[in-house]
Structures
1.
Amino acid sequence: MMDLVIPDKTHDESRQGEALVLEPVTGKNNGRKLYIESYGCAMNFSDSEIVASILSEQGFETTADHNAADVIFINTCSIRENAEQRVRNRLKEFTVSKVKNPGLVVGVLGCMAERLKSKFLEEEKLVDVVVGPDAYRDLPNLIDQVDSGQKAVNVLLSREETYADISPVRLNSNGINAFVSIMRGCDNMCSFCVVPFTRGRERSRDPQSIVAECTDLFNKGYREVTLLGQNVDSYKWNATAESETPNAEASSAETTNFANLLELVALISPELRVRFSTSHPKDITDDVLYTINKYDNICNYIHLPVQSGNSRILEMMNRTYDREWYINRIDAIRRIIPDCAISTDMITGFCSETDEEHNDSVSMMDYVKYDFAYMFKYSERPGTLAAKRYKDDIPEEVKQSRLAQIVAKQQEYSFYRMQARIGKVEKVLIEGYSKKADKDYCGRSDQNAMVIFPVGDNYKPGEYVNVLIERTTSATLIGKVV
Ligand code: 5AD
Ligand code: SF4
């Protein structure tokens, strides 16, 4: 089943189910080993780093081998039915280990935990603990409860929790790229989407704690941060929100919006690359685009999910913009940021979508010629507005054939965008050896394309090099350092 095409770091299919490892924490050690596996979006991977941090404080050591673990956690995703299915299959494997080792604690974290709550314990009897995305600080207590023979659940959502003070333990890290959460939750209520129900209300994190975390990463040798949120363009921090400032102008001067935050992070060092995900077409401002253009270290790459190219479907999706608005935002990006890569998410076969309406999605792809796209068949999620209001009436074969059509189209455009780089020199941050050959290094261009080039004596991972592009595949640029 084709779901996702052309992985990048923030939606990386190859990372699904990745086990996370960290070095034993010096000092405290309670003799117990923790294994965490993560599914879904980059936010979940980032949350697993917060969980590891909370439990390392309790003396847990992390392991990459679930057979060696005393506690197994799966950080889960509910975005589509098949994401949940994948987790259930994996959980079956872990609960088999539990039969052999009854002392093993098996826990479900993240969006599925939040969606199913204590139902999880009825459905999957061998699960011991169920914890939603805003309750990770409670994990030590919950594990104690399980140790004393009870099942434990905490799925309370919060309006404030941002884990701002927790410094995440960087798991499976190459020491060069890191994700930094800048906000949590989502207030948009797109009709197809389960996220507002599983991750709760939108809240932004204190900019000072974000800048401090990014500065610390830079000082430790990291050279790229990706600022994460479901809708980064609605990031907003009001420093005076809690003090008494009747004067509206005074308080607005204290407000940090996403453009301000980008600038604060970009100013840490010109050697620190800044990326961000996800942008929302209704909220991305020209101000943000000018800021991206102003700083060389803010990468020229915007992930701007369109979901559909048809205004009636967008309305039913409750996206709060129409086709013209989206095109206006694309035109603004092209005008303000020369040479900006754009990627998107697209859903095929949403409720009542006709062939003509689907063709509007196809023609949107022709208009934008996206560099990358993540494409999905509509999957009805229980409890969402679409599930309540509309019939999931597009036959599976039609969803599939529409998906196949846009996937083929995107492959053409990805290849076209790659080909256009031949003969150009790209500034690449070296991330490490290429997956296929240790004679080659890999890294990303400013526009987020993967670049492969021969290993050399004069440069190493974590450094920038200029690479002349000589040839390409539809997903990779290949060249040599100049
Ligand atoms: N069905 C299919 N795709 C979905 N997405 C979100 N919810 C659904 C759903 N119910 C896609 C959207 C979103 C991406 C993260 O996942 O395209 O942008
Ligand atoms: Fe879901 Fe829409 Fe929020 Fe994205 S913006 S998480 S698609 S509700």
2.
Amino acid sequence: MKAICPGSFDPVTYGHLDIIERAVALFGEVIVGVGRNSAKNYLFETDERLRLIEDACAHLPGVQVSPLSGLLVDFCAEHGVGVIVKGLRFAGDFEFELQMAQLNRVIGEVETVMLPTSKDWGHLSSTMIREIASLGGDVSGFVPPLVAERIAAKVAARREG
Ligand code: PNS
């Protein structure tokens, strides 16, 4: 069955990649859907978030990266996706994801599988990565090398501008 890992991925972290790798192991074929949440301010535009994930997933056969817009269940219907895969870090994630999973099942008959994040990455969030990087901290232990490089370049450009 084809699965989707949807998200903003601003930027993609080792926590996201852990979930994507485990989703491929479970379902064989995974679309990483890169969307835009209008409530969020993004560091990277959609094109760059797509490129960074493509690079980070290049070693994973069975993974395809795609922009995502509109309703997630419509995307699933159009692309033959049968299951949404989400990572859970803590109880707060579950409360939000449960509501989404229930709604997506009602409006689109799509199932959601929630995977507990590996203990190594449970503390990670893209928001924290952006904050650490913007304050001059080292994020190389949390994100792929190209992402760390691109964040450093963005932060430097913002400081100069
Ligand atoms: O968790 P994120 O990073 O905010 O996810 C962003 C995105 C765009 C993937 C997410 O907001 C999403 O799934 N949007 C689809 C809109 C939708 O289907 N909404 C109804 C859910 S019940």
3.
Amino acid sequence: MQKVVVSFRLFKEWIEFLKDNGFEVIAWDSSVPPSKEWIKENIKDADGLLCSLVNRIDREIIDAAERLKVISTFSVGFDHIDVNYAKSKKIRIGYTPEVLTDATADLIFALLLAVARRVVEGDKLIRSGRWNQPWTPDFMIGTEVNGKVLGIIGMGRIGRALVKRAKGFNMRVIYNSRTKKEVEAEFVDLDTLLRESDFVVLAVDLNPTTYHMVNRDFLNKMKRSAFLINASRGKVVDEKALTEALQSGTIRGAALDVFEEEPTSLDNPLIKLENVVLTPHIGSATFETRQKMAEVSVKNLIAGVRGEKMVFEL
Ligand code: DGY
């Protein structure tokens, strides 16, 4: 019997699906991720590993596996896996792009609108009993989204989905990415993007070139009236530099779905700032999308173990 390890809490019906397909399944069943030791111990004689972004799959883990054929991740991001090392050991990698594009682009727009129109601040004001004045023309003034400039950094699937949404808001869209793309948006260099954008959205993956891409220098180049939106990976942003920029008025606001450390702690000074909207890494968190991610990642796992074509392979 072939053996697969699932190193995060996967929906029960997909565990059953794997068993029904004839696999021995060793599955972690807690929201707290397993230790490295647990993965190493169980992966030893496994044919496949289904992991998520909370599992760091490094050389040590890969070396512990004696007959692993595939690592399938329940995510589009793969910065938690030493991909090159796995590939050098002929281990295939599956991931879940496409199925989460729309859900993530929707959340990015939700964040953009929320921070521009002060939605969360307004909600907090009412709940804390501080809504104590009648309507006046200057109360809770936010920033108009319609007709503004959206600057997208990275033009992959999510970037393209953002372009579509931005058209509905009559926005001018500019973008910067490694190469020019066929897309209804204007390619500009990074400095131009930062100088002209009212909203800067990060749609890049985390790799050595994007780590702390948003630093003091980057933020200083943005308009003082601009907002930063990040639902990619927390480590793309130097949170210390962002906090200082938000406190000093270098930029107007930020909306973040991802953090340098997750879960982020109450000591994170970003939490204290009014001009920041925060969500807990929920870009792909809709019922429909998470089901599709489960299906794709399980099918990738099975195909990888059986030496067949995966749905999405790196
Ligand atoms: C991913 O898939 O990489 C997201 O961060 C979580 O859905």
4.
Amino acid sequence: MIKTIGVLTSGGDAPGMNAAVRAVARTAISRGIKVYGIRRGYNGLINGDIIEMNERSVSDILQKGGTCLYTARCPEFRTAEGVDKAVAKCKEIGLEGIVVIGGDGSFRGAADLSAKGILCIGLPGTIDNDIACTEYTIGYDTAMNTALEMVDKIRDTAQSHDRCSVVEVMGRNAGYIAVNTGIACGATEIITKEMPYDLDEVAKKMLETRKTGKQHFIIVVAEGVGHSQEIAQTLQEKTGIEARATILGHVQRGGSPTLRDRVIASLMGNYAVDLLTQGIGNRVVGMQNNKIVDFDIQEALSMQKPYETHTHEVAREIAI
Ligand code: ADP
Ligand code: F6P
């Protein structure tokens, strides 16, 4: 039976990471397993920035955004020497397993550690929802709801000035935040890398809908497409309708996690400790058909995620 585990957050922070850390720590403690919090991702493992946790160490964090363990990107961990230093630290303090909360990059690190005999379980923590083996990542729901709230506010001013507002949302290379925020806010057009788009057609649609009484326009652009400023300028030139671009940025990463993020993070954190107590490592936890499941890390990293084409098409059809 495993006696000592650690938990770390790595890569970009996401709302709900704290709920996952809490679930890991509390599940371990209730099962008599010693648990350490490793700070600033893999940096903490290399530098020994590690604290023993008790049940009260994770009090009052469930409702907070960010991560109480801090997070970081750790280039040293990408080297063989870095991994060896981390393994040596695990041996020194008796860490037999680690729950790694992060994205694909963090899971690659977890696979390296697993190959050296440290049982690692990855939990999907990113606002981008760009992890192929899971329908859902911790932080995604909160980020989308924040983006939606921001677009609703932007609409007030776009409406008052009869303008077009081009709003860029995060997602790295993926358009999941954009397509869902776009349909939910009633965007005239959603522009992502996954679907073809034509600014001439967008301009035409704006002018046609103006004839039926539409006075202001919201265009949601995924970060991966970029050029929001140019898109706004081009649409203004093509339509004569005044346009403004807003890049929402890191506001989408912060804030109190939604109920959905807290629930999924709690269930996934508990599930990760379940795997470790069975002596299982080198797995990524995910959600498929609303059920929590797990995959081999390499298999998870080789999977492809479909885009939400149907949602995008419906959004286009009803935005008239
Ligand atoms: P995310 O986990 O959100 O994808 P990153 O890609 O920045 O974020 O990865 C987070 C950290 O995971 C990196 O700073 C590094 O420490 C570790 N990591 C990323 N890729 C690898 C890799 N190929 N091998 C080992 N460790 C990696
Ligand atoms: O992965 C989360 C994310 O916020 C992406 O949406 C964005 O592309 C990136 O991280 C921004 O990274 P940073 O905070 O390092 O600027």
